[in-house]
Design goal:
Length: about 100
């Protein structure tokens, strides 16, 4: 189960328009992933910009990178993605009640 700090880091990484766009592209790419050049072609972004934003997604644990020869393949860590969504929805519709301690 993820902790608040891990979820906050994941959501902060996804809270930037460019990183969210990159992440959604990698979700569509599935387990095959994409190298930085391919991401750049799809999104019309420079490799240096993409490297910075991908680094943030990697640091947040949402994307993994694997070297294959001269290329680095970027993939979504689907387990981390599902854990983040599960954390957000775990207590859905459970109700919220104030206790006397909360009200004081």
């Amino acid at each position: 189960m993820m902790k608040h700090a891990s979820v906050a880091l994941s959501l902060a990484a996804l809270g930037h328009d460019t990183r969210l766009t990159i992440f959604r592209l990698l979700v569509r790419a599935g387990n095959d992933g994409l190298n930085i050049g391919e991401v750049g072609q799809h999104l019309g972004m420079a490799a240096s910009t993409l490297a910075y934003h991908l680094g943030t997604l990697v640091d947040a644990g949402l994307v993994t990178q694997e070297r294959q020869g001269r290329q680095i393949i970027n993939r979504v860590d689907f387990d981390a993605m599902h854990q983040t969504v599960s954390f957000l929805t775990a207590e859905c519709c459970a109700g919220v009640r104030l206790t006397q301690e909360d009200a004081a």
